[in-house]
Amino acid sequence: MVYRARAVWLLLPLSPFVSVSLGRSVGPRDPVPEGYRAAPYYPTPHGGWLDSWREAYAKAEEFVSQMTLAEKTNITSGVGFWMGPCVGNTGSAERLGFPRLCLQDSALGVASADNITAFPAGITTGATWDKALMYARGVAMGKEYRGKGANVHLGPSVGPLGRKPLGGRNWEGFGSDPVLQAKAAALHIQGVQEQGIIATIKHFIGNEQEMYRMYNLFQPGYSANIDDRTLHEIYLWPFAEAVHAGVGAVMTAYNAVNGSACSQNSYLINGILKDELGFQGMVMSDWLSHISGVDSALAGLDMNMPGDTNIPLFGFSLWQYELTRSVLNGSVPLDRLNDMVTRVVATWYKMKQDKDHPRPNFSSNTRDREGPLYPAALISPVGQVNWFVNVQEDHYLVARQVAQDGITLLKNNGSLLPLSTSSKLSVFGTHAQVNPAGPNACMNRACNTGTLGMGWGSGVADYPYLDDPISAIKRRVPDVEFHNTDRFPSNIGKPSPDDVAVVFITSDSGENSFTVEGNHGDRDADKLAAWHGGDKLVQDAAQKYNNVVVVVHTVGPLILESWIDHPSVKAVLFAHLPGQEAGESLTNILFGDVSPSGHLPYSITKAATDYPDSIANLRGFTFGQVQDTYSEGLYIDYRSLNKRGIKPRFAFGHGLSYTNFTFSNPTIRPVTPLSLVPPARSSKGPTPAYATTIPAASEAYWPDNFPRIWRYLYSWLPRNEADDAYAIGIAGEKKYAYPDGYSTVQKPGPAAGGGEGGNPALWDVAWEVQLTVTNVGGKHAGKASVQAYVQFPERIPYDTPVVQLRDFEKTKELAPGDSETVTLRLTRKDVSVWDVEVQNWLVPGVGLDGKVGRYTVWIGEASDKLFLACYTDTGECETELEPPV
Ligand code: NOJ
């Protein structure tokens, strides 16, 4: 039997360091810099007070009323690492028809499964700037999850947001801007959840580097110190949009925020997520980041994953039987457990998983037909674990379209591209060809061998195949020579002036669970240089050939300065991380079947030092808690460069086409009148009501003669332990050492809340801009990207970035001469700032007379190509302007 060591990767970095934690394993918080605070926020707001979830909660209330204590604690926790088919498996309440839930990675496809589609990564999807494709990819992925019988999709990822170019997991998300992340995530969630699959927005929040992210015996995970305004305007923004889109689950991050671990941070979970954003679904921990039993429950966590303590596989949990005990002895109020379990059950009803939802038909642990049902048990019952269900349908088409439309043409001197299929081509670089050992040869793709279609770690899927560039090129071009090397060969004869060299280079990164060629998840070794001497390969090719095309498969930005201005380097394509469809998506662009239409989801600077140290560099080791302080505030990526007047090599949003577009006839119209402060929120509706007395100890007794599986996590207690706990609880004498600020009185909720994602008025459309986009190139068809950036009025009492992305649209493919009318919208939130004193979103452009001052809506094809502007005060628009940056 072939076991795929699916889970082991998570253990490797932990084993020497983890603490045996059977209670509260973390000491007092480390000091964080002045001004960064995770204030206590209790109790957890009950779920169920919003109309959009009312029906699901009504069903859940009825269901939960029938559950025993042990059934409740069974479904709020995993049953143990490697104890079922999926990466996370909850317990069940089979008596009542509630199954074990299957939670499965990743954000780019069903992980560790056969017969699925390995979609392009998030970063590639972001680079399409195409809302329809963002949604279509979500629909296709949701169908595959459902077809495989999973309940919960562990994606999308918007945290990291891409603050640090060297950060290891930026590629799992959609780009270094909150609005690009937010819109892509919301559309993905919508697509996935329409298929009856619970989507999970992750990692909440501040997980902007991989190194030192986890708590262990010797050191807490790093503290991301984020001030209130920066949190709201940058990092929380995509989470708020995801909640607004109705996301069913949120996964907390490994690290701490403002000194408090994200899995038990009451300020973040109870306060920000569940009260201000009105989140009605369930909050799960990231894997093995559960470090306290009672405290995490009180702080608002609803599900611990995969169920174990942070030393997995020994059969210990801080919840399951311990949560049962904590409720019996009165430490965790039953009210909190009821809310946890109601949130889980309501989310299940909301996605209609009570109706014919398939059970898992695949195994993350083996590709064999039969295998142990609980691999971590060592001696486990054996049965059928794989049914080899093919869920691919025609999803390769969506995957290819995303890969193709994400390809970003950075430079095309002398219109070298598109190439003719009759050109003589020499292809250089090992990355043009699939890994000779197979595309899945390295566990969790933790190597950079052959074509790079995804990064490494838990955010991957197994390739069903990898259409590599060299095969696709050979299918199109009769005269091609392939040099499968990253060192420029010494025996190349003199090329003729028209010969073309196509050079493949890469940059890889991933999750901290693996180190690849010295890179610990983050790009700490190779930094922003191409791997395997790629920059030198380009330089050498440029010495020899007159016409060099560079194709870059990369997780993020690179410094291109050593070759970008070489006159022979005429064309550069960033193909990002294309997934299984790397080949044909590229040749469709190379040979001009379609024009490139991708745009950069981040800026490419000339030097790493173009950013301030807080974002340019990773935080290194220190004793105690590593402090990652967001001293740059709002100023990341183009916001930072623009503030400091630094011109990047290629700006955020940059991308060329084979054709040209004009933007004309702009108009702007006010839609919803704005006041300084949003209209008052409505008060919370009713939530499920249950008995709050401590349940009978008998609800927790181990059943007689139950065939226990070794190391499996159960929620029952031995009779005497249940009785003892109950006696303590009923006597009410021993009081748990509750955290500062602890309360059990439900709050009305902050003014900034009131709906999913915040006050519903934040989504009121304030202005609508329309314009005509015309393909004026004459030769090639193409799709245009239209990007809208807001500039706040002058003389407002807030420092705001010069321009900030607020909306974008992509045209359909326009034939030469064709036009399309494009509409872009600005909401109330888009023109607001988060006021830390008022604790609300204010529209600073509203004057004392109630009139709204001049917001400028800049429209263009990139953050530095903004030639058209519309003004909110006069309602006029102008064209042919000097860009503001
Ligand atoms: C750790 C990762 O951070 C998270 O993204 C993933 O979903 C879980 N492990 C499960 O593999």
TrEMBL record:
GO molecular function: beta-glucosidase activity
Pfam families for the chain: Fn3-like, Glyco_hydro_3, Glyco_hydro_3_C
Alphabetic keyword roster: Carbohydrate metabolism, Cellulose degradation, Glycoprotein, Glycosidase, Hydrolase, Polysaccharide degradation, Signal
Name of the protein this chain belongs to: beta-glucosidase
Family of the protein in this entry: Belongs to the glycosyl hydrolase 3 family.
Leader peptide range in chain numbering: 1-23
Catalytic activity: Hydrolysis of terminal, non-reducing beta-D-glucosyl residues with release of beta-D-glucose
GO terms of biological process kind: cellulose catabolic process
SMART domains: Fn3_like
Broad EC category: hydrolase
Species name: Parathielavia appendiculata
